[in-house]
Amino acid sequence: MKQPTDKREKQEKIVSMFDEIASTYDVTNRILSMGIDKSWRKKACDKTLELLERSEGLTVLDVACGTGDMLQWWRDRAERKGAKIGRFIGVDPSEGMLEVAKKKVDFADFVVAKAQEMPLEGETADILSISYGIRNVVDRQEAIDEFYRVLKPGGMVVILEFTKREERGLKGRVVDFYMHNILPTLGGLVSRNYAAYKYLPDSIEGFLTTDMLRNELETAGFTVRHVQPFSMGISTLLIAQK
After folding, report:
1. For the chain, N or C: smaller number of CB within 10 Å?
2. Which stretch of DSSP H or E encloses residue 103?
3. What pTM does this model have?
4. In this structure, what DSSP letter does residue 178 have?
5. How many helices (H) and strands (E) does the chain have?
């Protein structure tokens, strides 16, 4: 009985941390990524819309939606690509994050829920995205199984994440120095919460490699359609189809 309790406590601690940094989350992210995350999100949306075999009456579900950034990207890129999204849904366990999202995004429905326990009917979404959130889900395989359940046949799961790097060359050491030394200090100054931004590089070290995450998607029944690393492998895009 102890392990489920430990997992629940760990998940609650992570959610509480995001509640605390919600008000400064957007500005801190823009500073820390120097805005390059916008390019990653744009490419994720464009590639998914290219691979998806339908473009009318789509439902987009953004899990761990945070302050709603990805939902805004889905609407913008769909309009540019001529795809018609009929419904946007944002899911996040952090009420603090959703309070910010509701002020920014007036075209989506929001649900307070964990990735592994979404109160949605099966085969609801054509696209399910999770951007820099799967790393924070304690019961990750349960969440991936849940993604499969709520996606329509042929639907796409889109994951943007900081995956663990296996190679430690010069570029890797430069990235590691930034992530472990500069990022926590700068993030702590802007958000006034050093612990939250110390958690980020630590959580990456304890996370999966790209191949391991790919295997988990395939175990759940997905077919991986696209894998793309960004910025020296700092970020990775995986798109898989049900």
Report:
1. N
2. helix 95-104
3. 0.86
4. I
5. 10, 7
Rounded to the nearest 10 degrees, how much is the dihedral formed by the CA atoms of 33, 35, 37, 38? Answer: 170
136: which 2 tokens?
């924070």
pLDDT one-digit tens code per residue, 87-124: 999 999 999 999 999 999 999 999 999 999 999 999 99
What's the CA gap between 165 and 219, in Å, rounded? 22
- With vertex at residue 198, the alpha carbon angle to CA 194 and CA 201, rounded to the nearest 5 degrees, is 155
Q: Which of 59, 146, 160, 65 is nearest to 110 (CA)?
A: 65
Sheet arrangement for strand 223-230: 109-112, 85-92, 58-63, 125-131, 151-161, 235-241, 223-230
How far apart are the C-alpha atoms of 31 and 12, rounded to whole Å? 27
Q: How far apart are CA 128 and CA 150, in angstroms?
A: 9
CB 41 within 8 A of CB 131: yes
219: its two tokens: 């175990």
Q: How far apart are CA 126 and CA 57, in angstroms?
A: 9
Contact of 193 with 183, CB cutoff 8 Å:
no
CATH numbers and ranges of domains, the chain: 2-164+208-241 (3.40.50.150)
Residue whose C-alpha is closest to residue 203's, from 160, 164, 158, 159: 164
Interval 124-148: pLDDT, tens: 999 999 998 898 898 999 999 999 9
| Count of residues making up the chain | 242
pLDDT in tens, 29-52: 776 667 788 999 999 999 999 999
